[in-house]
């Protein structure tokens, strides 16, 4: 077969670049941008737009805690396919997940922007519904983001919900949710993003046990998930643990809820320059084998520690099993913090 014309290839590459770039801009600026816009409109002849939205916001305030408002139409937008193809992002299944079950996916690592998590679980581009038929999937994100006007609606439309007890309890045991539900939790959170640099495989996990307690409370199987390449798409200035700069980052995170990562990618126009466009590095997300967890509404510390240890062993075993095929050197191993 004849090769497609060069101008068609160039057009596809440009769409991928622009799609990846818009994701970064939305991640960084959409929340604060729309907040400032609504405040600005209050002082113009369009003040009624802001007032009407604020009334809607008041009436709709609890929706994120009740499963959100996912839209299959938005999750299927063509732009997400271009984002997927830019890196590219791929989803790998290693075991069957019966559709009548309940699951908590522990996603690792956080990276800078969780691009593997977004493509695989917030969009329909990598075949999650085909690989795991019958499973509804929701991704738990920073609760503070759902207080930002308009941005909250955008997040809910792609299947995000707050990582709060009320929200997670609803997803795993709410009306009509007895089974067939998967909740994705980025276990390391904002703290882990501070270690998201190329070549690093450090997980904030040793003292993160809330997701295990949640699994026991609802009898949900634990599923380890690791995205190889998540830390490769941006470079970051990583400070040593205990340094004054790292302590300053931690203080900022404790106050604001997110980490002030000092990261950079490539330039949009000149690839060799610094910029906000991610590097083109493949991201392979491996969904591991489920760890059955009993239903224990009031789990003991011994139960939590037992299944937490099983989970850590499972994520380490999965990493070692798949690292060679994902381009990780044999001398690289997971480091737990």
From TrEMBL:
Q: Which UniProt keywords apply?
A: Acyltransferase, Endoplasmic reticulum, Lipid biosynthesis, Lipid metabolism, Membrane, Transferase, Transmembrane, Transmembrane helix
* InterPro entries in the record: DAGAT
Signal peptide bounds: none
Q: Which GO terms describe its cellular component?
A: endoplasmic reticulum membrane; perinuclear endoplasmic reticulum membrane
Coiled-coil ranges (or none)? none
Membrane topology term: Multi-pass membrane protein
Q: Which domain of life is it from?
A: Eukaryota
Read off the Pfam families from this record: DAGAT
Q: Where in the cell is it found?
A: Endoplasmic reticulum membrane
What sort of enzyme, by top EC class, is this? transferase
Keyword Endoplasmic reticulum listed? The answer is yes
Which sequence ranges are marked TM in the entry?
20-39
**Assigned EC number:** 2.3.1.-
| Family, as annotated | Belongs to the diacylglycerol acyltransferase family.
User: Under what name is this protein listed?
Assistant: Acyltransferase
Source organism of the structure: Ornithorhynchus anatinus
């Amino acid at each position: 077969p004849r090769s497609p014309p060069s101008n068609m290839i160039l057009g596809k590459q440009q769409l991928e670049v622009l799609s990846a770039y818009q994701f970064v801009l939305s991640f960084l600026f959409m929340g604060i941008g729309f907040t400032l816009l609504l405040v600005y409109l209050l002082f113009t002849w369009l003040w009624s737009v802001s007032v009407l939205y604020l009334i809607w916001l008041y009436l709709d305030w609890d929706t994120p805690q009740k499963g959100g408002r996912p839209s299959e139409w938005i999750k299927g937008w063509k732009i997400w396919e271009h984002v997927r193809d830019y890196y590219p992002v791929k989803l790998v299944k290693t075991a069957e997940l019966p559709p009548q079950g309940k699951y908590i996916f522990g996603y690792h690592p956080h990276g800078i922007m969780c691009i593997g998590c977004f493509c695989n679980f917030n969009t329909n581009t990598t075949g999650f519904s085909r690989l795991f038929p019958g499973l509804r999937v929701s991704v738990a994100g920073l609760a503070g983001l759902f207080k930002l006007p308009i941005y909250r609606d955008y997040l809910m439309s792609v299947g995000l919900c707050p990582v709060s007890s009320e929200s997670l309890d609803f997803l795993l045991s709410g009306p009509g949710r007895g089974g067939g539900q998967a909740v994705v939790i980025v276990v390391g959170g904002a703290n882990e993003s501070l270690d998201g640099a190329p070549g690093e495989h450090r997980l904030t996990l040793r003292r993160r046990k809330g997701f295990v307690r949640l699994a026991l409370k609802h009898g949900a199987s634990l599923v380890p998930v690791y995205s190889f390449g998540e830390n490769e798409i941006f470079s970051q200035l990583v400070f040593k643990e205990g340094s004054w700069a790292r302590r300053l980052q931690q203080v900022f995170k404790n106050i604001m809820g997110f980490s002030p990562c000092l990261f950079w990618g490539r330039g949009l126009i000149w690839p060799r320059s610094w910029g906000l466009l991610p590097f083109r590095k493949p991201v392979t997300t491996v969904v591991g084998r489920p760890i059955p967890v009993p239903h224990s509404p009031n789990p003991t510390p011994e139960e939590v520690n037992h299944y937490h240890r099983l989970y850590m062993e499972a994520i380490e075993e999965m990493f070692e099993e798949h690292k060679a095929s994902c381009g990780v050197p044999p001398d690289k191993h997971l480091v737990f913090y």
